[in-house]
Amino acid sequence: MDSRTGAGDPKITLSELARAPAAVRRIVAHPYLAVRGIARGNLPSPWDIVAFALLIGTLVLVSFGTSQFGAPLSALEKNPVDLSPWALPYYALRTTLRMGAAMILSLVFSIGYAALAAKSKRAERVLIPILDILQSVPILGFLTFTYTFFLGLFPGRVLGAELASVFVIFTSQAWNMTFSVYQSLRTLPPDLSEACTSLRFSPLQRFRRLELPFAMPGLIWNMMMSMSGGWFFVVAAEALTVGNQTITLPGVGSYVATAIADKNLGAIGWAILAMLIVILLYDQLLFRPLIAWGEKFRADNEPGQVEPESWVLRMLQRSRYTALIWKPVDAAINRILRPRRAAVASAESPLQLPPWTPLAVDIAWYGLVILSAAYGGWIAVRYISHALGLGEVGHVVLFGMITMLRVILLVAMASLIWVPIGVAIGLRPRLAAMAQPVAQFLAAFPANLLFPVAVFLIVSFHLHPDIWLSPLMIFGTQWYILFNVVAGASVFPHDLRDAADNLHLRGWLWWKRAIIPGILPYYVTGAMTAAGGCWNASIVSEWVTWGQTHLQAHGLGAYIQQATTDGDYPRLVLGVGVMSLFVVTFNRVLWRPLYRSAERLAGVEE
Amino acid sequence: MNDDIKNPAAPPTEAVLEVRGVRRAFKRPHGEPLVVLESVNLNLHKGEIIGLLGRSGSGKSTLLRIVAGLIRASEGEVIYRGQPLHGAAEGISMVFQSFALFPWLTVLQNVEAGLEAQGVPADEMRELALRAIDLIGLDGFANAYPRELSGGMRQRVGFARALVVNPSILLMDEPFSALDVLTAETLRTDFLDLWIENKLPIQAVLLVTHNIEEAVFMCDRILVFSANPGRVVAEIKVPFKHPRNRLDPRFRQLVDDIYSRMTVRAATGKATVLSIGERLPEVSTNLMAGLIETLASETYKGRADMPALAQALALEVDELFPLAESLQMLGYAELESGDVHLTPLGQQFALADTQVRKIGFAKQMLTRIPLAAHIKNVLDERPGHRAPAVRFLSELEDYLSDSAAEQTLSAVTMWGRYAELFIYDDAAEAFSLDMPEAETT
Question: Which of A27, A161, A505, B401 allows an S-S link to A500, with CB 3.0 to 4.6 Å?
Fold first, then answer.
């Protein structure tokens, strides 16, 4: 165990050795962690406060507005859910379509938002802190607002509810994709960027030839991550009770909700099976091909890496019909994007503006932002203090602490279990190749489909909900820890493993000196994703039902869920706001600094 | 030996491009503006290849980028086709050191990209691109992706893309420096062949390089730049006819001349005392020790001719000059008229063992590098013997550009660590005097 005995005392840290071959980060880090320069430190900047005030103000205004709608909600038509397994393919299709619609929306949003933030310093100042907070907001707490808002827009129509559910899924997918595109746009290779200028590309050509291709690998990877997170929310968003109004949209989620109400364990089994098949199909038909195709956009093509492969892509690429379809599309794009010769000839002369213009625009823009933020903050404070009083805030913060304790304990426990297993798998390439898709698959599987089973067990064995409901929170997200650790361990440099053997590093010393510094950036990425998922899941897992039986743990999640069920808007705003604050603080104080030092340790800095 | 029979640099007639009083400077929150490039004048004539020669930080790349329209001049203007230049102009194209090819496009698509912005119809574009590919010797590779090609082939794509737009001026930013010696030579001669046979549309070439031999081999005129602030210190006509013979004594003589001109400034700088804001080259102590040992060896006996040394050690000007200069700063060597020779201190260093070397090195740093002495002083005076790096960085930024300040601090950190003058903690980004505590395992 102790190798520090005598002359051959190995003082060298392996992380120092690791500086020589910069580890190739195959798996893109969580884009939030990888973004540099949001704020130099991790302390909140004034812009964070502005962003938070803007968001919570908007929340209050929406809830304020929608609570006036009231009545028309009850007119929503009711589709009784058919629990026969033969109805499931149709429900699965509906669920899948919702996912697809949300994904398209997220794509458009992420590219637009990121481009705006990357190109305009003024926009960046405001947009990036907003994004930072948006990605920390518990989406499930938003359900009520979105539903009331969209149902208010389309009173009594299913369309409103459909749009609302698509919007909810969108909010679960868009942020990390946006971070990823933003990060790519900020780190464009300078020589290619200069080449574009030198070739006199128009902004559109530049986007098509440089910006979009360069952002592609990261974007595809994050689309996949978003998608796997999205199944959880699509299931949660299809069946919802707001106040005394129950909304059911045809889909796997509402199928499960009905099964729960009916205490039909068999139907839940069928739903799980259907979900498994859908995710498998999505993976094979959409994402494997996308990832394999996205390989060609990698700017740094390291030889010797295993190229991702996809049978679907190979089939498409070898088929003559694909080219037949693709050629005209490509030509059409070219025709649209090609500037007219005349237009090229008449080069624009720069607009002559007085020299104080930038300053004036600055003052107007930042003034407007700060005024809006001040107004937002003011109405939020007034709204909550008017309806609830300060005592309630303390109460909610206490609940937040309880949930935070759960999150910390659960992430720690999951780490203790999955890190050793992940390392063991990752160091064996054949095993890793097999385990990796399974872990990703498990991460995609909506754990809330399994909740009823757990609740059934808790009720049957009369277990304490405060303890036994907790594992549900991490059930779906622990896999992120596993597959990131597997990824980290599998790219752990071979020479370092040899060096560790050669130095006779064993037992704890081996972990401390060799493997932990090596996998730390990966682990932090996984753990942060898992923890973020935990917060979100607390809303559905601290408060569960089985038929008429109802179980509840103490915590912020249960508080938000109760406010949702009661249609209590002030409590909802307060709960969601406090939870967002907890998550933002968590990210700033813990994950980001940890990731920075992890990168430093592993020698992959900059 | 018949070099002077036909002189390519015959009396120039027509200026294709004029650079008039171009200067580039950055405003700084406090202190004087930082000048990167001090007023440069230059006429680029028809049929000329002009070399911009200098070390990193001498502003030669900045000048090239101003002409390319990639960055703006703070003062002065570039006149092209009778008009001041605004942004990238039609007819001026550029070849990059890193090739700057789009990895996701094939060779053909990369070359076509040059035409895309001009709104050329698809079939015409294809034809022009194929012709450029043919000219530059890439036929057969049209469908390959850049990653499938060797470095030399990639740079050929870079040339084809620059030439396909039918430019009148070609800008080259160290186009051969990322290639191995043999490939670079082939590419140079291939280019010169096309140029001499008038197979290229271009009328004039501006070539940035830090390789003196390359400049003498290719250019008709060479502008030598000095650093801090960047400015032209010499203009040298190259009177040889193409193809040039590198082994010709007059060729060698000219290379030697340029070497000594480039060491002049360094030599005059030796007497003056360095200031805190002096830019330090980021040269590793291993490399310094290596050069001292090499100079002290039987082969050189303490003195070496710089061009010969550069060739023997396979070092570029960009590498050899900072290295030799850092030895001069520390008092281990002297530079004069293209030669480098060891001082007595340098001789002692070569003979000493590691511990003695370190002690000597520390002494030299404290007496000759004011920044090192300053850091040490601050650490000595502070009660905790600890100071954040950012403190010294912001002091340096009063004298140097941000990147130069970081480089200088990183150099002094590297040297100070070797000399055991102080400790640097990268995680805390702080200097200190305390040794790392023994770990309790």
Answer: A505
Reported ipTM exceeds the 0.85 cut:
no
**Superfamily of structural domain A85-299:** MetI-like (1.10.3720.10)
Q: Is there a contact between A383 and A56 (Cβ–Cβ < 8 Å)?
A: no
- Say whether A198 and B70 touch across the interface (CB within 8 A): yes
Minimum-distance CB partner of A338 among B69, B105, B119: B119
Start-end of CATH 1.10.3720.10 domains in chain A: 85-299, 389-606
Write phi, then psi, for A29 (nearest 5 degrees): -65, 160
Confirm or reject contact between A597 and chain B (CB < 8 A): yes
Per-residue pLDDT tens digits of chain B, which is 441 residues long: 333 333 444 454 578 899 998 998 877 766 677 788 888 899 999 999 999 998 777 888 889 999 998 888 888 889 998 888 888 888 899 999 988 999 889 999 999 988 888 878 888 889 999 999 998 888 889 889 888 888 899 999 999 999 999 999 999 999 998 888 889 999 999 999 999 998 888 999 999 998 888 999 999 999 998 877 788 888 999 999 888 988 899 998 898 888 888 776 554 444 455 677 788 888 899 999 999 999 998 888 888 888 888 888 878 777 888 888 889 888 899 887 778 889 999 999 999 998 999 999 999 999 888 899 999 999 988 888 888 888 888 888 877 777 888 889 999 999 999 999 898 888 778 898 876 554 443
Q: Taking the domain A389-606, which CATH number applies?
A: 1.10.3720.10
- Residues of chain A contacting B147 with CB distance shorter than 8 Å: 301
Set of chain A residues whose Cβ sits within 8 Å of the Cβ of B96: 191, 194-195
Between A192, A198, A344, which is nearest B102 by CB?
Answer: A192
Q: How far is CA A541 from the centre of its chain?
A: 19
- Of A165, A172, A156, residue with least CA distance to A239: A165
Architecture of domain B15-263: 3-Layer(aba) Sandwich (3.40)
Q: A545 - beta bridge partners?
A: A550
Cα A455 → chain centroid: 27
Q: CB B427 to CB A597 under 8 A?
A: yes
**Chain A to chain B, count of Cβ pairs less than 8 Å apart?**
85
B-chain CB neighbours of A297 within 8 Å are 103-104
Question: A5 at the B interface (CB within 8 A)?
Answer: no
Give Cβ neighbours of residue B401 (< 8 Å, ≥ 6 apart).
B26, B34, B36
pTM: 0.80
